[in-house]
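Appendix B. One record, verbatim.
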Amino acid sequence: MNILITGISGFVGTILRRQLEDKGYHVSGIDMRSSDSSVSAVDITDQAAVMHFMEELKPDFIFHLAAISRVDYTNPSLLYSINVTGTLNLLTAATHLTKKPGFLLVSSSQIYGIVDEALQPISEQTPIRPINHYGASKASAEHLVQVFHHEHGLPITIARPFNHIGRGQDPHFVIPKIVKSIRENKTTIQLGNLSVMRDFLDVRDVGDAYIRIMENFKDGSVFNIASGTAYKLSDLVELIQEIARIKLEIHHSDSLIRKNEIVKAIGDSSAFKKEYNWQPVYSIRDSLEWILSE
């Protein structure tokens, strides 16, 4: 089986590649940021380059992870170019292959926007109402995937992961930012709103979920990937300090608080758990200990 991962050198792509190769799969990848000679530097916004690469590779399955994933990204044009136009180019190239590959779009829980606490946990039936450009770009990518599924018969599944953590995550995100400060022996750190509550999964559990989707493909399905448990960021900061046996002096900065902050987001992944007999393996403490032991 010939597998393609877009964004293979990113946070999730790195873990997913390792997990797939450990299971004996042949994995190819594209990523513009990689220095790995085995990874192809294909710009997914370049339609001709994507078409040529796909015709050469002829993948049996595509994990589409490549995206700008920062909610507060300051260049919306580039964000939409990569997250939407890049997805369109991959879908177009996939439909031109003699044998259409399975296509997993990794979307995001950000498509749901702000959901009233009384309506949580958030299920796949929750209305799509993004409140930032990242969420809007992922919602647009989902619509594109659905159109190619219905018009061209492309086999697709959409995964909507909630927050996940692990080794190799960009320090723009709060947990790796704190860990980076600890590694640099800093005693103070500036953070934003620590009262928000997030549903966190270990990236290794996320990778396992994506592989299960590939191995038992449910064409046309949409699944939340979540733990179902919300953690207050302030509690995680305390837990990190406990595990690391250090004490940080925390300064709260209004400049780090996002506009239209999502105060609480808990995912309902009961449909996925039932369909795939899946449960997260790693606790939040397991994840933090793994990150801190790197």
